[in-house]
Amino acid sequence: MNRNLREQLIKIAKEKIPNTDVSHDFEHALRVLTNAERIGKTEKGDLDIIIPAALFHDVVVYQKNHPDSQRSQEESAIVTENILN
């Protein structure tokens, strides 16, 4: 992935990820990104897939006791697809 696109995705993630839960906020996404890129490079993974997956995996977050909490991953995937399109 080229550096410019990576930076654009980071900027979008910063705007989209809610900061209502410190365990799933933008800083968490950056930590996941750092680890994912390191592993991806070592294992020769596809960073065009790894980078957006790491950044946007928690773009939709519900509190654990929220009735829709089980849908967070599915909704994050939908939002991510729309961003990437």
Task: Provide a concise account of the structure shown.
With 85 residues, the chain is mainly α.
Structure description:
This protein is mostly helical. It has one domain (3-84): Cyclin A, domain 1, CATH 1.10.472.50. The protein has helices at 3-16, 26-42, 47-56, 72-84. The protein is globular and about 40 Å long.
Tell me the layout of helices and strands:
Elements: H1 3-16, H2 26-42, H3 47-56, H4 72-84
User: How many strand segments?
Assistant: 0
How many domain units?
A: 1
Largest sheet: none
Net shape:
globular
Indicate the structural class. mainly alpha
Helix content: 55-70%
What oligomeric assembly is this protein in? Answer: single chain
* Rg (CA only): 13 Å
Q: Might you state the CATH topology name?
A: Cyclin A, domain 1
| Distance between the ends | 16 Å
Figure out the total of helices.
4
CATH class membership: Mainly Alpha
Mean pLDDT: 94
CATH architecture: Orthogonal Bundle
Pick out its properties.
single chain, 85 residues, mainly alpha, Cyclin A, domain 1, 4 helices, 64% helix
